[in-house]
Amino acid sequence: MNASGTNQPPDGTFLTNDASRRTFLKGVGLAGAAGLAGAAGLTGPFPASTRASAATVPVILGANAPGPWSPSQPQGTKPWPQAVPGALGCRSYRDTPFSTGADCPTAFPGEQFSKPVASIRPDPAVLLNPNDSRYPALVQAIKDLIKDGAKKAVSGYFAAPPQLTVWHEAGHLYKASSDYAQYGLQPLDDGNGFPTNGAAAQRARSMHVKMKSLCDAVTGPGTSLPHVDYGCIIYGDMNKMANDNDLQGPTNWVPEAKYPMDWYGIDIYRTSDGPGTDCTHDDLTSYDKVNQVMGAFHAMVMNRSPLSSPHINVCECNADIDTYRSQFFTDLAAWLHNNDGRRMLTFWHDDPAPHGGPWSSAGAGTIQTLNNIVSLYP
């Protein structure tokens, strides 16, 4: 029995292919950054490429749901699709943890006609323990949920096969004082913001490996359904959340290279409290600064993925002051376009939110910038 209290090995036994480790970084494109800045009415400087073999890709822009998607909101207050036509990315959550198959969501989360990235929270004590009497029904219910997402893509309900993750921001959100501590994912820390609970990190990695195996078993090659891609989402710097020098320890919440994910996600905000509070509050006032934070994330992904052009998602992003948003969104979209970024999902919240704010706080310049992103990186 391992440190998680289950008979699961540290990162599961569900995948066997070893991935090549990579230590190089990919290039940042000058043209993409400068082009978007010009379209948004912004000026440089935008640095020339500092890394080799940049892979330029379309960027799926979107927002969280139900939030701005909610039909209960007055017409005109919703950003998608009224204010930003063509922004089809959708970030959906089912935040209630569940330990039984009966409590698992039956409908794959995501708004109609969107391209969803969804989060769910299965109980790791059941998901990772085949000896638990609840395990068979829980796993079958999750498989049914994955199948529902794939079928919705086939039917046209979703605009593309959805993506799935569990327990987003593990290693950051689930502190010992939170309602989720009972699920064994609390990171704890050493007083300097560094996680110390290695069992929690291992549990998170094992869940990701297990969930990817379920997506692979239900959809994709050998089935009649499009693949539901599985990935993980972190929040924080690589030394705390995905440390390549601590692959089995408390500062690694991302499966290592022999268990590659289909995509890798990070939540990143520009906030007025500035550097020093945590990684994603670093100085993000320029393309160069965004490149420093996202470049570290990209380097980690290249060490974990077997793909020369891996799939990177920004699953939450915003700024707490509207005058920051155009520059930040511009720089982040340009970086993603030039560095394997597939999704840029903005986050809006009506409650007092230190990292973002309600959609009603988005000014005309921000809305124009979002439309420019859709136009420039289709």
Task: Pick out its properties.
disordered N terminus, 9 helices, alpha/beta, 378 residues, 30% helix
Please name the CATH architecture.
Answer: Alpha-Beta Barrel
pLDDT averaged over residues: 83
Looking at the structure, the CATH topology is TIM Barrel
| Low-pLDDT regions | 1-52, 275-280
What proportion strand? 5-15%
Give the overall form. globular
Helix and strand content put the structural class at alpha/beta
Using only C-alpha atoms, the radius of gyration works out to 20 Å
CATH class category? Alpha Beta
- Tally of helical segments: 9
Strands of the widest sheet, in order across it, are: 1-2-3-4-5-6-7-8
Biggest sheet statistics: 8 strands, parallel, barrel
- Domain unit count: 1
What is the distance, rounded to the nearest whole angstrom, between the alpha carbons of the first and last residues? 48 Å
> What is the helix content?
25-40%
- List the helices and strands in order: HEHEEHHEHEHEHEHEH
How many strand segments? 8
Task: Write up what this structure looks like.
By secondary structure, the chain is an alpha/beta fold. It has one domain: TIM Barrel (Alpha-Beta Barrel), CATH 3.20.20. The protein is built from nine helices and eight strands. The N terminus is likely disordered.
